[in-house]
Amino acid sequence: MTLTNQQTDTKPCQCLRTKTIYGNFAADFETWQDGVASAAAFWCLKTMGPAGPDEHFVHIGQCTPERRCYEAPLE
Fold this sequence. Notes:
By secondary structure, the chain is largely without helices or strands. The chain contains 1 helix and 2 strands. It has one domain. It has one helix spanning about 30-35; strands at about 15-20, 40-45. It has a two-stranded antiparallel ribbon with strand order 1-2.
């Protein structure tokens, strides 16, 4: 199963990483988003672990502007 634009309509935090998007730029969000599996492993660059600074797990559908640690992608 892959995530679609309808499932994640906002850009995730710029600190979110997964092996499938490693090395891509925030501006390429739409390009890599469709290929990200819902079971992919994610980590946060701020903590280098599976949870963000707010101690909640990171995921493409979780790292949104509602989180206090969210950093908007550079435009």
